[in-house]
Specification:
733 residues; globular; seven-stranded parallel β-sheet; eight-stranded mixed β-sheet
Length: 733
């Protein structure tokens, strides 16, 4: 029997689950059973948990449907637990180093306690110092084990489930399980305290609770708020059945109704049932108020007396009188010119145009990427929707002649942004853009993440210094309604890097549709347009941006590579779009395609890809053509930029570390050999999951036409797809 069973529900936190599991398995105390609780065998978290189970026999994943809620997930974990003591940990929280050692030592000192309460750290999502809310309460506890009557203020109501350790035999003997529905921690904490006979405390922080940026789900408005009273009634009924003395019931009663009054003072949380909530709370208050109970002083005491009297109208009036008016004024920048600001404000008061969609790609660089692919499909499937593409001044020439556009910063730009029903971007709209109720924002992203993104960049100083305000970034994320993913890896990274309340669309990247629909004639046409000589092997070289460098550095002597790789090799050079200045760096056997509008065309033309850490490898893998990773500075890049994938452990093909190695794999053909094909197959299985040629159709039908998810075209299995054919046979003798 292990000493501890650690139960970790994972619903909605798959992107952070690995951090929680690592914090457990990395403990110096190893006598444990780790139980990740996943929504189901096909859930994103299940894949993460299965990987840990394959590597460590102490990991025992179980499943609990999302409909069962956090209480059901914990109960499922309890049924699988075999440890002497149970520890609960949310899937996005961390067990601090040395926590289990400290808990084990304290349990040994206080042998046989039913519950051991410990301190926890509440870490703000972004700014501010962590707090230790349990410390003042636990500081008053006796030094050793004690009876609950010795500290009646320690009711468990004010402590979450993961701020304690529970003896499993005690829970089993009393039939204690997490109550169903919402506010389950409150019900659980109260029921456990009512049943416990011997408890102790550990004055040490063992869990870091990372506050979710979106706040607690329990603070959202809705009918679930009324279930708070179910939990209160459940706990007070249990206390009455056990005939707890008034000196114990009094603190329990007061703490439970402090939560009730907090909800009652916010009628916006119960827009359709606030009066009914108040009346039921009054009945519970009168029925369970301990004899001789004296309400606290001050405003809270007034609320107690009004609730006891059932004075709903007076309670509402008191709440209105005490509520501070106003709030922090918005600090988002607005259009610079006063006249433009006034016009934008006027347009925001006009009705939303239900048939207007606004698109933008790469901060206005032109007609490209996922927005362009969605735009093209929308013209086919939703011709009633007028589409306007946004471009920077001077980039108008990048937009096809038959595509309507607006220049960023112009009067028309602000007008269409104010009126559009649909706003679609692969980056972000300007901070001054207002998210109107009823509008729909789709973030398409522009690549599968290999390097750290969003707020994950904050711990990398060089990147953070160039990234601007993360607070403002999160403000832009708040406008998203949908966020597009091409694979589950991306979904998990976006969840962690861009925390928000948007919905993930695991539909694939529309820009990658062409890799399944293009023909041999399309490939030949693109090669002619780019100037690839007939019969030559075109190698696309696409290095990524380096945050620690200024300006573009190829990182490789391309002329020397061509000479060493073979006389029929030509290189298509595509620098990162940060360095697209419209000029050409090509000469001889080097064809500079950086300024070419369409990255997909360039990939179609290439017989093989050489890249370092660019996300283009994930897109190019859809073509099932050879990929070589040129990783001459992987350790430096990983340290400075940060990565969310160990590329050296899961490469899409052969890895070369030096120019000589790179040339050699082309000379001997190993870049396209059996090992390269095996690596590419595994890579495609993981990262080409949804890119089947119908991503744009799924997006248009779901977002623009409002079709339900079950009506969308299903994803074609990888084995049934036919990638666009390459122009050359690549295997050399």
């Amino acid at each position: 029997m292990p000493r501890f069973s650690i139960i970790v529900p994972s619903h909605g936190v798959a992107g952070r689950l690995s951090q929680a599991l690592d914090s457990v398995l990395g403990q110096s105390f190893g006598d444990l059973q780790l139980i990740p609780v996943c929504d189901g065998p096909d859930a994103p978290a299940a894949e993460v948990a299965a990987g840990y189970a394959a590597r460590d026999s102490r990991v025992t994943p179980v499943h609990s449907p999302p409909s069962a809620g956090p209480g059901g997930a914990r109960n499922a974990g309890m049924r699988a637990a075999t440890g002497a003591y149970l520890v609960f940990l949310d899937g996005d929280d961390l067990l601090l180093p040395g926590a289990l050692t400290a808990l084990d030592a304290r349990l040994t000192e206080t042998a046989g306690v039913d519950v051991l309460y410990a301190e926890h750290e509440r870490a703000p999502w972004w700014e501010g110092e962590p707090t230790n809310p349990a410390a003042p309460l636990l500081a008053r506890a006796p030094q050793g084990a004690f009876a609950p009557a010795d500290l009646p203020e320690l009711t468990g109501v004010r402590l979450p489930a993961w701020s304690a350790v529970y003896r499993r035999d005690f829970l089993t003997a009393h039939g204690l399980v997490f109550p169903e529905s919402h506010f389950t921690d409150l019900g659980w904490g109260g029921l456990v305290t009512v049943a416990a006979e011997r408890i102790a405390v550990l004055r040490r922080t063992v869990v870091r609770h990372r506050l979710r940026r979106q706040g607690s789900r329990l603070h959202l408005p809705g009918p679930h708020q009324s279930t708070l009273l179910d939990q209160v009634e459940r706990v007070l009924t249990a206390a009455a059945e056990r005939a707890l003395p008034d000196e114990r019931t009094g603190p329990l009663f007061e703490q439970l109704f402090a939560v009730v009054l907090k909800t009652a003072s916010r009628p916006e949380r119960l827009p359709a049932g606030h009066r009914a909530f108040f009346r039921r709370a009054t009945r519970l208050y009168r029925r369970h108020r301990p004899s001789g109970y004296r309400a606290p002083g001050g405003s809270l005491g007034v609320q107690h007396r009004l609730l006891a009297a059932g004075a709903y109208t007076a309670f509402r009036a008191l709440r209105g009188a005490n509520r501070a008016a106003g709030g922090a004024a918005g600090r988002l920048p607005r259009p610079h010119l006063l006249r433009t600001r006034l016009r934008y404000a006027r347009d925001l008061r006009r009705p939303i145009d239900p048939h207007l969609a606004v698109y933008c790609a790469y901060w206005g660089r032109g007609y490209a990427c996922n927005p362009a692919a969605i735009h093209a499909k929308a013209r086919e499937l939703a011709p009633h929707i007028r589409s306007v593409f946004l471009v920077e001044p001077g980039r108008e020439h990048t937009v096809p002649e038959d595509v309507e556009y607006a220049v960023i910063g112009s009067r028309r730009y602000w007008e269409v942004l104010a009126r559009a029903k649909y706003l679609i971007n692969n980056a972000n709209f300007a901070e001054g853009v207002v998210k109107r109720p009823g509008s729909v924002h789709l973030q398409t992203q522009h690549g599968t993440p290999l390097k750290t993104m969003g707020v994950d960049q904050s711990v990398y100083p060089v990147v953070a210094a160039r990234s601007g305000s993360f607070t403002k970034l999160l403000g832009r994320v708040d406008r998203w309604d949908f966020n597009l993913s091409s694979n589950r890896h991306s979904t998990q990274v976006w969840e962690r890097a861009f925390p928000g309340s948007y919905e993930h669309l695991e539909y694939g990247y529309p820009r990658n549709d062409v890799y399944c629909t293009a023909t041999a004639e399309d490939v030949a046409r693109v090669r002619r347009e780019l100037g690839v000589p007939e019969g030559r092997t075109a190698v696309l070289y696409a290095p990524t941006h380096r945050d620690h460098r200024t300006g573009f550095e190829p990182g490789l002597d391309l002329e020397a590579f061509c000479e060493a790789a073979g006389e029929d090799v030509v290189v298509l050079l595509r620098a990162h779009y940060f360095y697209d200045r419209g000029g050409s760096r090509g000469s001889g056997r080097i064809i500079d395609v950086t300024a070419h509008r369409c990255a997909e065309d360039v990939c179609l033309a290439a017989d093989a890809l050489v890249t370092d850490y660019s996300s283009i490898m994930f897109d190019y893998a859809n073509l099932d053509r050879p990929i070589v990773v040129y990783a001459d500075d992987w350790e430096v890049y990983r340290e400075i930029r940060g990565v969310c994938l160990d590329l050296m452990a899961e490469p899409p093909g052969v890895v070369a570390r030096t120019p000589a190695e790179l040339a050699a794999v082309f000379r001997d053909g190993s870049y396209a050999g059996p090992r390269a094909r095996a690596l590419r197959a595994a890579f495609r299985e993981r990262f080409c999951e949804f890119d089947d040629g119908r991503a744009a159709e799924r997006v248009v039908r779901r977002v623009l036409l409002g079709e339900p998810p079950q009506a969308l075209p299903p994803v074609i299995p990888l084995a049934d797809r036919t990638p666009a054919p390459a122009a050359a046979t690549l295997v050399r003798s």
